[in-house]
Design goal:
The chain is mostly helical and 260 residues long. It contains ten helices and two strands, in the order ααββαααααααα. Strands 1-2 form a two-stranded antiparallel sheet. It is globular and about 60 Å long. The mean pLDDT is 90.
Length: 260
């Protein structure tokens, strides 16, 4: 019971620390919205063929940027933040306190997932107000569940990738190198169409980003043509695999000791 209280207190601490860095907080929230505005300015008048009908690209970009928001909050922020904490000796010092290691990591992950959820809500409201994209009702439970599953998966992968980051200076480069190229080929920044090379789609299918984006796009279909509950079992299975892989890799290779 006491450990659980410490874990919840760590979540509160992470939240306070997050907002005491206004520059980082501002760009965490502004970055996805900037992408959303830019994409809609450039491609908003275009259309795409989704679920057997032609829809505005604004309909595509709301769930796609929601996926990007979750990845930024849970993968990028955790990978970079934990690497800095590790090499500044914070993690080593925490191991010498009564705070259990799992409670510290729980605090980081739970706070990242909370930020991701707030970001998704902002993106959805942004799309409704500025781009007149309706909020689906029938498939909203699938959308929320997919967001939660994606946040957990990318938080685990964010912890795991710290094992290959040698020092804090390298953390933005390594993190972006492992995520940005995949965002361009995974139906997030650019909608994949029939002209996309087949091998590129097959390559993107290996990784969880395309499946996460597809799960959100399917569940967030304002036209209501998505059949069933909106859950895409095949996408969730691939994401679950990557989640297990991230947990296993983090459990095996995560380090509390500074490397520099």
């Amino acid at each position: 019971m006491r450990d659980l209280q410490l874990a919840l207190r760590q979540v509160r601490y992470e939240n306070v620390a997050f907002w005491r860095n206004p520059a980082a907080a501002f760009f965490t929230f502004a970055f996805p919205l900037i992408f959303l505005v830019i994409f809609n300015l450039i491609f908003g008048s275009d259309t795409t063929d989704r679920f057997g009908e032609v829809v505005s690209l604004s309909n595509f970009y709301i769930p796609a940027v929601a996926a990007f928001s979750v990845i930024t909050a849970c993968y990028t922020n955790i990978a970079i933040g934990v690497t800095f904490a590790r090499d500044e000796g914070q993690l080593k010092r925490i191991r010498g306190t009564p705070l259990p290691g799992w409670a510290y990591l729980f605090g980081r992950i739970a706070h990242a997932m909370l930020i991701a959820l707030i970001l998704v809500v902002i993106v959805v409201l942004f799309g409704r107000v500025l781009y007149d994209v309706d909020i689906p009702g029938k498939t909203m439970p699938a959308f929320v569940a997919s967001v939660a599953a994606g946040a957990a998966v990318f938080a685990a992968l964010g912890l795991a990738v710290t094992a290959i980051i040698p020092n804090p200076d390298a953390s933005p480069a390594v993190t972006n190198a492992t995520i940005l190229p995949l965002l361009f080929v995974s139906d997030v920044f650019i909608p994949l169409g029939p002209d996309t090379p087949k091998w590129l789609g097959t390559f993107a299918d290996i990784f969880p980003i395309k499946h996460f984006s597809h799960a959100l796009i399917t569940a967030y279909n304002p036209s209501g043509t998505t059949t069933g509950s909106g859950f895409v079992a095949s996408d969730l299975i691939v994401m679950a695999f990557w989640g297990v892989f991230g947990v296993a890799a983090a459990a095996r290779f995560f380090s509390w000791e500074p490397r520099t």
